[in-house]
Each structure stands twice: as C-alpha cells, then as structure tokens.
Amino acid sequence: MKKPVPELDYRKLRLSNLNTKEYRHLWLLLYWPIYGLMFLFVERFYPVESYYPVHCVLDDYIPFVEWFLIPYLFWFLFMVGMHIYTLLYDVSTFRKMMYYTILTNTLTIFIYLVFPTCQNLRPAEFERDNFLTWIMGQYYILDTNTNVCPSLHVIGALGMMFTGWHSKYLEHPAWKIAFTVTGVLISISTVFLKQHSAVDVLVALPISVIAYLICFRPFSKKKKEAVSVPGNPETC
Questions:
Q1: pTM listed for this prediction
Q2: Using one digit for the tens of pLDDT, what is the confidence trace for 33-58?
Q3: Cis peptide before 4 (omega within 30 of 0)
C-alpha cells in the first residue's frame, strides 16, 4: 500500500473559493442536514394511519445475539471514516459515494412515505443481562420500530463498502476483503439485534446494487477508457 497523499489543502478553503473546481464537491455534504430533516419529518411528523408490519418465517429462526451490537454501532464509525478518508485522499470517490447516498437515501425516504412499515421483532426482555443488552435496551428507547423497509443501515453499510472498493491507495485485496466483511457483518447485525426483518435486508440489496451500478461503475469504466487511449494526457 502506497502512503496516502492528501489531494487538497483545505487550509486554503474560503467562502470566496468554495465554488471553485477544487472545493465545490463540499457542497454535496449539504445533503446530510437535508436528509436529516426529511428523516425527522417521516419519523415524527408525517401522519400515518397504520404501518405495515414486516415479517417473514426466517425472522423466527434468527436469535437475538447482543454481540452483533459491535458491528451494528461500527456503522457510524464506518460512515464517518470513509467520508473523511475520501475527502482527504480521493475526492472523485467521495463524489461517487455522495451520489450513491443521495440516490439511495432519497429513494428510501420516498418509499417510507408511500409505504410505511414497522417491525414487531424486538424481544420483550433479554435472556441475558450484560452491558451489551443494557445498551441495546437504551437504543430501543431512542430508535423507533417504524420505517424499516428497506434498511437504511444496510444501504449505508454497503455504500461504504463500495466506497472502500474504489478508494485510492486501498487497492490491495486485503482491504477489499476487510471492507466486504465489515459491510456483511453490519448488514446481518440488523437482524440479529431485531432491528430489522430479513425482508428489510433483502429489499435493501437490489437498491444498493442498482445504485452502485449507476453511481460507481460508469465512472470507473470511463476512467479506464481514458487511461487506455494513446496520447491521453491523463496517462502522462
């Protein structure tokens, strides 16, 4: 692995040059507060007469396992870490990641509006009493059991996995394996913590894959074609 070299010097960032080619990608970060307001609206203020309970037979065979709280909470670090890394070392991949996020999260919010869902899978009480189950109990209080299909936790985890696959300086197979294992563990943690039905995960998968093909693959193909053209300045 080559030592990462920062692409930009953000110490030079000013309001006067925010719209320049060098820094205008930062405007994409404005989507996060916009998304936060949309999610708050659909969760707390959007009037819903009834929610459709999501459930499948597989859910009944999946036990509650509190140890999955570790990868579940790692999702937040995964998200923040990939944002910081790409902002510093791989702006083009940062853009792809944000396009993926804007597309999938906005689509998911729309689905929540037209097809409100909920899940009734959370255990009434935990079989074991330990620090992890205590944290999970507190998390249940903070997080509602509504608007669950598709799972944004899964969509976000896969998005960061795709970002890792395409990030500069992280081309070694070991990194790709690490990102893949992380994405998978976070995704399955949602069902082992009874935060989501297996249906929520299965619905999130095609949305994530289609968004990946739209937001990541075309850019990668164009980049390869540009490099392969003889005399192209990008190859110099």
A1: 0.90
A2: 999 999 999 999 999 989 999 999 99
A3: no
